[in-house]
Design a protein that fits this description.
The chain is of the alpha/beta class. It contains 11 helices and 11 strands. Helix 2 runs parallel beside helix 3.
Length: 318
């Protein structure tokens, strides 16, 4: 999983598409942002255009945004684009949708983010119109606060029945999991420990039953940060760098810091971290609590050697 707002360019993306597929990864996902939450602004390759390149320059990878904010990614047009990308890639597109959260990019580019109540109301309407447009072969009408359809039909119809899979990301025990149970084919938890993931997954089961669906009707996935170390010396160096940014890690041994990082359930604080041996154990622990796919953030776009090392030392054991 690539955070595209941290300097992603065409040379980076073209190399990633080629190598990630060749190395045997299942998918390649990326964020959808104009820029960073905090300065400085860095290159940020446009998401839909980059996914179009991926669709036509790969054969096996499934792909999509984690996630596209409906606060600026107009969902009706995005449904049309996603259906086309799914057809172009022979059924490999995943529509990751979210409510939007980053205040700074909305302010800079003139989009209305709104308060949390507004965001969630808009998000639910967006999920409704996307679902109807992709799944209905009959003209669709919908009169909402944010979106209106009046006898609309997306043509050509998606080659895959029902169109590409819909992914909803987030951990919210009230609204997010409820919306996932109603609309999603895939739920994507974020920055959770195995215990935290299991708790949310059990809660999701309850919401699925209330929505009239079977718990097995939704795939359970997780997005998390990856800190890969080739060996113990490399791990000690990476932990030291994290300690300089996170006061709560200072004074801890390498092993203590790694344990603390593994259990932290917050962006920028927790991670799947360690040498290949440690990472294999952590990833298997997630599999044991029901994680079916793990999307790991790879931040250093110039460290392709590290990505290759991770792939050859970890993937064969999973």
């Amino acid at each position: 999983m690539i955070e595209g707002q941290y300097g992603l360019t065409w040379p980076h993306w073209k190399q990633l598409v080629t190598e990630v597929e060749a190395l045997g990864f299942a998918g390649l996902f990326r964020s959808d942002h104009f820029t960073n939450a905090q300065p400085p602004d860095l290159d940020s390759l446009e998401t839909v255009v980059s996914l179009t390149y991926l669709a036509s320059h790969s054969e096996k990878l499934h792909f999509g945004p984690l996630v596209a904010p409906v606060s600026f990614r107009e969902p009706i047009m995005f449904a049309r684009q996603a259906a086309a990308l799914d057809d172009l890639s022979n059924g490999r597109m995943i529509i990751g949708l979210g409510a939007g959260w980053q205040d700074r990019e909305h302010e800079l580019f003139g989009f209305e983010l709104g308060d949390m109540k507004t965001r969630m109301a808009r998000f639910e309407e967006a999920l409704e119109v996307v679902t109807r447009l992709l799944k209905s072969d009959e003209p669709v009408s919908f009169e909402g606060r944010f979106y209106q359809l009046r006898g609309a039909t997306l043509l050509p119809r998606p080659q895959r029945p029902g169109g590409p899979s819909i992914l909803i990301g987030g951990n919210g025990l009230k609204r997010t999991l409820s919306l996932a149970a109603k609309y999603a084919d895939i739920w994507n938890g974020t920055f959770l420990s195995p215990e935290g993931f299991k708790e949310r997954s059990v809660a999701l089961d309850g919401f699925m039953v209330k929505a009239g669906r079977k718990p097995e009707d939704i795939q359970r996935t997780l997005m998390h940060t990856l800190v890969y170390a080739r060996d113990n010396a490399d791990l000690a160096q990476k932990v030291q760098q994290m300690q300089s940014r996170q006061p709560e890690l200072q004074g801890l041994s390498v092993d203590e810091a790694v344990a603390r990082i593994q259990q932290t359930q917050a962006p920028g604080g927790g991670a799947v971290i360690g040498t290949p041996e440690l990472l294999i154990k952590q990833i298997k622990a997630y599999a044991e609590v029901g994680v079916e796919e793990l999307m790991l953030q790879w931040f250093d776009l110039d460290d392709m050697a590290g990505l290759r090392s991770f792939a050859t030392s970890v993937l064969p054991h999973l």
